[in-house]
Every structure is written in C-alpha cells, then in structure tokens.
User: Fold this.
Amino acid sequence: MKKVLVLYYSQSGQLGSVVESFISKLADEKIKVDVRRIEPVETYPYPWSFYKFADEFPEAVQMDGCKVKELENLEESYDLIILGYTIWFLAPSTPIVGFLKSNQAKRILKDKPVVTLIACRDMWVMAQEKMKGLLRAVDARLLDNVALTDQGKGIYSFVTTPRWLLTGKKDAFSIFPPAGILPSEIEAASRFGERLKKALKENREKQGEPLLQNLGAVNVNGKLIASEMIATRSSKIWAKIIKLFGKKRSFGRRVGLTLYSVFLVLLVFTVVPLNILVRKVLNLFQEEKLKALEVKYEKPSGR
Assistant:
C-alpha cells in the first residue's frame, strides 16, 4: 500500500477546501492518505486586526518561522508528501516555515518526493523560490507545484484580499469581484489527485520526474515577475528597519509599522500606477524574455 502525507496550514479555510478537493480522488484501497493540519503553538487570529496582521510582516519576510506543535501518530515513512501553503508578505506562511525548520520536518521529509500546493493571490513566484530553498534544506525532492490563484487579479486584489483578511468578508462589492479562488477552480483541483493516484500505482514518484504536467497546474504571469522581485527587495529592507523600532507588540514596532503603511499607501497611489504604465510599454519589447521567465518559474509542473 502506498502512503501519502498531506500537510497544510489554513487560516480562512480556503486552503483546507483546496486540499480536500485535491485529494478527493486520491485515496482508495491501495493508497492511504494521512491529512494533518500544522498547528502553531500560538494561534493566529482570523479575521485579523490591522496591527496584529502588520506585526507579522518583518518575521514573515525574514522567514523566522514560529513554534509549531509536533505531529503525532505518523507512519514511519511515506511514499509522497503533499505540502499546502499560503503566502504571507511574498513568503510561505510563518507556520509552514516554522514546521519546515523543525527537527520533525527534517525527519519526515528527508529524501521524500514533495508536491507543493499553493492557494493565494497572483503573486506567488518568489514565495515558491523560497519554498524550494526550505525543501532543499531538509533534503526533500520537489516533484511538482500547483498554484491556484484568486479570481480578483492585479490591482483588484490589493483591495479584496486585505478586506477579506481584516473583516472576513469575501463577497463582491462595488466594482470589485469576490476575494478568493473561484469555487469551480477549487472543485477542479481533484484532477491533480486523480493523476497522482495513477502515478503512484505505477511507482512513478520514484523516478524524480514531474507528475502533473499538462494539467494547468501553474500559470505564471511574466509581467508580474519584475514587480514581485522589486517588492521582495523592498520588503526585506523594511523588515530590517521595522525590527529596529522594537519587538513584536511593542509601541515602537507599531510606530514603524505605521510609517511603512503610509509608505505603502503612497506607493499604491503614485509609483505603482506609473510602474504599471512603464512596464506595459517595456513589455512590448521584452516578449521573448518574459516567455523565458514564465517557462523558468513554471517548472517543474508547467506547460
């Protein structure tokens, strides 16, 4: 019998729904699926208050991780591990990072094939690059990646995603679409589990080759890559600055976060629109380069 371990951390419940759909056609009499939710020692709120959410920014960007509860009653070994995660400030969520930096993760994932499963807005590429580094650090083998993104693309998600996180409301309003992934896309995620079932029965997970190609597992927008890179560099600088203001939950930290928030608002209403316009012009002359970047970051499961 093949054994599959599914690990994930979900706050709003959306990733949990994605995981449930993903594995709905995976288990049968020859494949056992063990689903575990990563539990941080100190729970995170949902919905967030503004400052509690912002307070996680420096540690999330620097991937400090957090303490997580040890998983109990696991099998001695698994044939495949599916790792579901969301994005916090252009990085894998803090509880997932905390788990991957734990001694237990090193034991569980060492030399094991891994499929990563992302549910987020449409900027996930740099977070997946960081995830690759975390998996290499525990000697895991990345086989595939699946990324399901919110229906509110681009500038819309700058409004709909924070509204969802801070109020719990994800419905459509005014000119903005609903937050989150389309229900039909979540339901369609079962095709990945169905493909994995077939591959496991053929022992293909041992070959080290991608198993989920030609299923629309990932779709990288090359026009967003430069923006992600710039935002990642800026976040690292601000993370260091904000930490200088004080520790988490301190008054000094709140002052630093307020300054950063003002900076972001000014950025969104000034630099971002100008950047979008400039990049639209530049992209006309960089079509081949953008396609090459898309191919690069869609590996291992794209095209």
Observations:
- DSSP finds twelve helices and seven strands in the chain.
- The domain at 2-220 is CATH 3.40.50.360 (Rossmann fold).
- The chain has two domains: 2-220, 223-297.
- The mean pLDDT is 92.
